Amino acid sequence: xxxxxxxxxxxxxxxxxxxxxxxxxxxxxxxxxxxxxxxxxxxxxxxxxxxxxxxxxxxxxxxxxxxxxxxxxxxxxxxxxxxxxxxxxxxxxxxxxxxxxxxxxxxxxxxxxxxxxxxxxxxxxxxxxxxxxxxxxxxxxxxxxxxxxxxxxxxxxxxxxxxxxxxxxxxxxxxxxxxxxxxxxxxxxxxxxxxxxxxxxxxxxxxxxxxxxxxxxxxxxxxxxxxxxxxxxxxxxxxxxxxxxxxxxxxxxxxxxxxxxxxxxxxxxxxxxxxxxxxxxxxxxxxxxxxxxxxxxxxxxxxxxxxxxxxxxxxxxxxxxxxxxxxxxxxxxxxxxxxxxxxxxxxxxxxxxxxxxxxxxxxxxxxxxxxxxxxxxxxxxxxxxxxxxxxxxxxxxxxxxxxxxxxxxxxxxxxxxxxxxxxxxxxxxxxxxxxxxxxxxxxxxxxxxxxxxxxxxxxxxxxxxxxxxxxxxxxxxxxxxxxxxxxxxxxxxxxxxxxxxxxxxxxxxxxxxxxxxxxxxxxxxxxxxxxxxxxxxxxxxxxxxxxxxxxxxxxxxxxxxxxxxxxxxxxxxxxxxxxxxxxxxxxxxxxxxxxxxxxxxxxxxxxxxxxxxxxxxxxxxxxxxxxxxxxxxxxxxxxxxxxxxxxxxx
Length: 650
What we know:
Elements: H1 2-7, H2 11-38, H3 65-101, H4 106-116, H5 120-131, H6 135-162, H7 165-172, H8 177-213, H9 225-233, H10 241-268, H11 273-280, E1 297-308, E2 315-326, E3 330-334, H12 341-348, E4 357-359, E5 362-365, E6 368-369, H13 376-381, E7 383-386, H14 400-411, H15 416-429, H16 435-438, H17 448-459, E8 466-470, H18 478-495, E9 498-503, H19 506-512, E10 515-520, E11 523-529, H20 539-546, E12 597-600, E13 603-605, H21 639-642
Parallel strand pairs: 3-9, 3-10, 7-8, 8-9
Antiparallel strand pairs: 1-2, 1-4, 1-5, 5-6, 10-11, 11-13, 12-13
């Protein structure tokens, strides 16, 4: 009803709905009121011309053509709607196949692409010959001819929704593809599909009239507008209204459906094999496990690679990532956009879709190899993921309580009542006021900070041992940022949950994390404790630190920046990827890529010139980071000041 009210607020919507209502009312009541009169034979008025008694004349049996045109509205509209239903159903099946079948679904994408290349009327004629004459064959012919268009639309819509964070969150929660499709994807593509189905009904009406006009559709004694046009064509020179009137009816009904669809669209705001074979030919980088897991190990990653097909060959935006995360430890990953931070997290969470490929020597979570076997139970109960955009992390068509409760019903066998109670409890646990009432609201009724905390609450529906937070403070203000960081810290302290925290803000990393992984061009270039950030060895790490203003920054001087631009993952140069931007780079750096080696107790660095002095303005100024201070007590800044939302300038 709300959508209908939006449509009726515009002149176009009022005109379209009025015209459509007239057509539908005629289809319902005309056969009841005038059906017998339309079939009455009058041999005294055979092929009579227009008159007061018969405004558009009579046919070869003396039947009134105006009444027959009005009565034919029902059969014409019903057949068009049935054909549209066939088209939408077949289109949905073909459209969701790639989502459900993964790589095997590519076959349906290719078939739809081929079918869309043919004109719909040509396909309708082809299918009409196969199914035979009559309204049944014509219905199937027109329906299947329209299916490719709906399938292409459905594939596009499903692909767009499948990339949203709330779908990834559902998959992290262990929800199967069919359940994700019906609970999360289809509800969010319903409006555009309905709008296009309405427009498609107008096209089906025209197509049906065309097939009947050619003698392939409705057969005597039944009649629709196309059949009436065919019968009137024989006497078009004597009585042109006999053929013109059914044609006008087709145009009016088609306009009614098309204008209604257009008005709805406006009111709702809708408006390659070779490369794959190259990627498939890559050999996996999997070898035997080097060592058994440590007692407190939560996550072990060794030689992680993520590869995608590219026009000139495979692209590897994550290249050999290697780290371990222990119970109760908070590890931060920092770097510029495009450095591979989020892809690393998605690879760990098994969210890299085809045609992407994840290879690793070790990818172990709680002692279980994530590369083999059924790890869905672990990912749904022991691993939680918090995405950076809280607005897209939730399904806008579902209430918040229901979305959180889904995790409990899926993995813990709770009843719907128990799961809802658990959802309310978790919302309260992440400091959302009036949790009972908030659970009945939709995501758009939450503020940005509340959505972010609710996302963390969704992860806490189980008993997670690892939380992957992908830039959770990027889309919130500094006050909410402080709340999110405090909440994550409290969760870690209370349950010894390990946290992998991804950010491009060094000050946020310094506030929350115990250890920092600095990524550049898909590799970890430095790994060190937060307390040693002021002793960073890699020029890139020191450049990131220098780019963060503090209380000692000269307000009259330009802000420090990292010169140059990040490396394109499709064109990673030989040698050290940072060499083109590094003031210490030499010929050796541009030829041989340094390995990540131990530089100090608990620290690693990948640089041929680690620790060498940097020329200004790249050299990092002395700063206070998590208790490590180079300033006097009078000028020392507080943690709140250090994490006041300042982002790295790159």
